[in-house]
Amino acid sequence: MEKIKIIKENIKSIPDFPKKGIIFRDITTLISNPVSFKAVIEAMEEALNLHELDRVVAIESRGFLFGSILAHKLGLPLELVRKPGKLPRQTFKETYDLEYGSDTLEIHTDALHKGDKVVIVDDLLATGGTAKATCKLIKQLEAQVIAAIFVVELQDLPGRKALEELENPPEVISLVKY
Asked: What global pTM score does this model have?
């Protein structure tokens, strides 16, 4: 519980950013503090300790910060989910809706093997769009999302529900909830 307290104390709440009425949860202060950054990685590692996993899948871009260290700590390969045109080999694509428009994510077609058990890592669960699209990419590769882990979850938004409504939903783990 001490780790979660350290994490929460090092996330700054910025009112009216990026627009009026929004409270932005700034993790730059979290990652610039070695104690709180270490607390995040240790809390993630502990939360995943009972899961049998084959790979870590990190979502661009802040998911890379946590996913790379977590993969190293767990002794697992790291795979990246990126925006279009950033991965050099053949990819699968998944388009998802945003508040105003849509976006696309990609993963290499050879990133995962059939039956791989993976954890998705990202910094924030809000609407669930990127995490849900990532789950769909992983399904295209015939792998299974065992868990999706986030530093922050915004509980007033439908992210958790979006993931729980998937066929074979992953366990959703959030270290800090607002």
From this structure: 0.96
